[in-house]
Design a protein that fits this description.
This protein has 15 helices and twelve strands. It starts with 6 loop residues before the first helix and ends with a helix. Strand 2, helix 5 and strand 3 form a beta-alpha-beta unit. The mean pLDDT is 95. Strands 1-7-6-5-4-2-3 form a seven-stranded mixed beta sheet, sandwiched between helices. Strands 8-9-12-11-10 form a five-stranded mixed beta sheet, covered by helices on one side. The protein is an alpha/beta fold. Helix 3 runs parallel beside helix 10 and helix 4 packs across helix 9. The chain folds into two domains: 251 residues, Aspartate Aminotransferase, domain 2 (3-Layer(aba) Sandwich), CATH 3.40.640.10; 134 residues, Aspartate Aminotransferase, domain 1 (Alpha-Beta Complex). The chain binds pyridoxal-5'-phosphate. The site of pyridoxal-5'-phosphate has 13 residues, from helix 4. Pyridoxal-5'-phosphate binds next to helix 4.
């Protein structure tokens, strides 16, 4: 992999793939479960370097490895491991650092399924202790540290209200106490935020969002030092078995070629629409880290070089009939979960949170009925604004 060039070039250039005898311009998909060897000795050699050897696709596969190389390049990490989903990557990373009875520090507004993993599995099954912190106060985190704290798990910006954590300060604090740090970096993307360079040990992304970008694959990735990723490969990756399929890896590779261009447009569109909503009389508050009026705009500018297209806003009304009117009137904004694809989406976190989360968790996350989450796609921004204007006129 050529390291000195710009990211865009590294993501487009596949001339370093020498695996194909025909000079195919697009790397072939190795849709194989296993790979064969000439001899006993050759098999022995492969097993002695199992972290890198292509033996069985639950461990390694050439197509998956090639895509992992691009993801590592993008994040500025030594090595990446591609999983079958973002949650597979989250679970593998967290389980790697936590042992029975360990203490975990995390932020209140983490992604719902991650909160459920902690509450319904790690706490009752492994006796893990957990402290939730707001994340925007270093002293609060320092105070939460116990002798058995083994992991600080971050998500910056966090889900729903998009509050930030100071990655550099927190990683320094963690190093002082010999505590590992992991971040869910899905929102900012590896293009706009580089946690590894700020001292975070392990970076995670759901590739189902912007990295895939077309709402047609589920995937997840962990990126970090070679030794850490090798360790996770041999344990949580191979043994829990949530390996990426070669076909999905190849679709992700294709998506990565247009990733920087797509992000530019997501960001432009989101900024315009966030500003439009921020100035609208029927909107109470907009939570978008790219806005000049955003509470943590200073920190956002310090540790991110750009912003993605997912944000939320609160309608002034808390009348459910009017809220539903607004939601159901939208046409270009399709109604559904997830985000980060080419298409604009709207979702009300209260819909699933009231079913999946406890009232306390909803309160901690600051979720109310009037909270609307939008994923701004690649449509023309004027058309999206017209759709929103029409729906807001309805309440
Ligand atoms: C979607 C998402 C995940 C989980 O990813 P999947 O690919 O859906 O398993 C984790 N964190 C955040 C912030 C997400 O939005």
């Amino acid at each position: 992999m050529i390291k000195k060039q710009h990211i865009e070039t590294g993501l487009v250039f596949d001339g370093d793939d020498k695996s194909d005898p025909y000079g195919a311009v697009v790397p072939p998909v190795y849709q194989n479960s296993l790979f064969t060897f000439d001899s006993w000795e050759a098999l022995e050699r492969a097993f002695s370097d199992k972290e890198n050897s292509v033996i069985y696709t639950r461990g390694n596969n050439p197509t998956v490895q090639y895509t992992e190389g691009k993801l590592a390049l993008l994040a500025g990490g030594e090595k990446a491991k591609l999983f079958s989903s973002g949650m597979a990557a989250v679970s593998a990373g967290i389980l790697h650092f936590l042992s029975q009875g360990d203490h975990l520090i995390t932020v209140s507004n983490i992604y719902g399924p991650t909160a459920t993993l902690i509450r319904n599995m790690l706490v009752p099954k492994m006796g893990v202790e957990v402290t939730y912190v707001s994340g925007n106060c270093l002293e609060e985190i320092a105070k939460a540290i116990r002798p058995n704290t083994s992991l600080i798990y971050l998500e910056s910006p966090s889900s729903v209200i998009f509050s930030l954590q100071d990655l550099k300060q927190i990683s320094l604090l963690a190093k002082e106490h010999d505590i590992a740090t992991m971040i869910d970096n899905t929102w900012a993307t590896p293009l706009y935020q580089k946690p590894l360079a700020l001292g975070i040990d392990l970076e995670m992304h759901s590739c189902s969002k912007y990295l895939g970008g077309h709402s047609d694959i589920i995937g997840g990735v962990l990126i970090g030092s070679q030794s850490l990723i090798n360790n996770i490969s041999m344990k949580e990756y191979e043994l829990l078995g949530a390996a990426s399929s070669p076909n999905d890896a190849s679709m992700l590779l294709r998506s990565l070629r247009t990733f920087p261009i797509r992000m530019e447009r997501h960001q432009q569109n989101a900024m315009r629409i966030a500003e439009f909503l921020d100035n609208h009389e029927k909107v109470a508050e907009v939570f978008y880290p790219g806005l000049a009026s955003f509470k943590q705009a200073l920190l956002a500018g310090q540790q991110m070089t750009g912003f993605s297209g997912l944000f939320s806003f609160k309608l002034k009304t808390d009348n459910l009939v009017l809220i539903k009117n607004f939601f159901n009137t939208l046409k270009l904004f399709q109604k559904g979960v997830s985000w980060g694809g080419h298409e604009s989406l709207i979702y009300a976190p209260a819909i699933s949170c009231s079913v999946e989360q406890t009232p306390e968790h909803m309160k901690r996350m600051g979720i109310s009925l009037s909270n609307m989450r939008v994923s701004i796609g690649l449509e023309n921004a004027d058309d999206l604004i017209a759709d929103l204007t029409n729906a807001l006129d309805n309440i």
